[in-house]
Design brief:
By secondary structure, this protein is mostly helical. The chain has 14 helices and no strands.
């Protein structure tokens, strides 16, 4: 066991481990240490200032789920965009679960949206489940507000996949688009442009959202 792994095991919460591992059916429970996110985040803040952190980021793939989450947290702390995106590209192929994939985006992405948009398009076109999901997550988080264009919805809605975690992200994206860009998103529901499962899941998630008005929810229920 590495020194880092020993330190992570000192932070272990077995009750949390049992609960959280049950939420990730595709991840071996033995690969989950059981460190709560706020605890891991505090550890990452201190760890990022050490020489060990630089070495750790070159040692891929990692053994434990928490190591992957730690890696994402370290990337998120990088302020220089070129270095940050380089480390992101190196790590994305090693993501093996939805929780790591959905980690908060680096803040420097906000100031480099032109480049991120092109990379997100590439990620969405990838064959790897979580690279594709990450790209769709970028589109949901960064391009549904002031930088939104109607064509962006098609980037996500046009994805055809048999992968559960890809389809779930499409539904999550569509529900968020309905909340933020109703006029552009609603035709995809009205005209059943999505697969049946994604269609129903998008409506379900939208109806559960506090950002959707009661009138919109009633209308969506009629489109199931």
């Amino acid at each position: 066991m590495t020194h880092l792994q020993e330190e992570l095991f000192k932070l272990q919460d077995t009750v949390y481990r049992n609960f959280h591992s049950s939420l990730m059916p595709g991840v071996d429970k033995e690969a989950v240490i059981g460190v709560r996110t706020p605890v891991l985040r505090a550890f990452a803040k201190k760890f990022s200032k050490t020489e060990e952190a630089e070495q750790f980021m070159t040692e891929l793939p990692h053994k434990y789920y928490e190591e992957n989450n730690l890696h994402m947290m370290l990337i998120a702390q990088i302020k220089d965009y070129n270095k940050c995106i380089s480390e992101t590209e190196k790590f994305l192929p090693h993501i093996d679960n939805w929780a790591t994939c959905d980690s908060p985006l680096p803040k420097c992405f906000d100031k480099n949206k032109e480049d991120i948009l092109e990379r997100a398009k590439k990620w969405i076109a990838a064959d790897t489940t979580y690279v594709k999901r990450y790209g769709m997550g970028v589109m949901m988080r960064l391009f549904l507000d002031e930088d939104f264009k109607e064509e962006y919805i098609q980037l996500v809605a046009g994805v055809k996949s048999e992968e559960y975690y890809v389809n779930m992200m499409i539904a999550w994206y569509m529900a968020t688009a309905l909340a933020k860009q109703w006029d552009a998103a609603i035709p995809y529901i009205q005209e059943h442009r999505l697969s049946e499962w994604v269609h129903r899941k998008s409506i379900q998630k939208a109806v559960e959202s506090y950002r959707i008005t009661p009138e919109q929810k009633d209308y969506l229920k009629g489109l199931r």
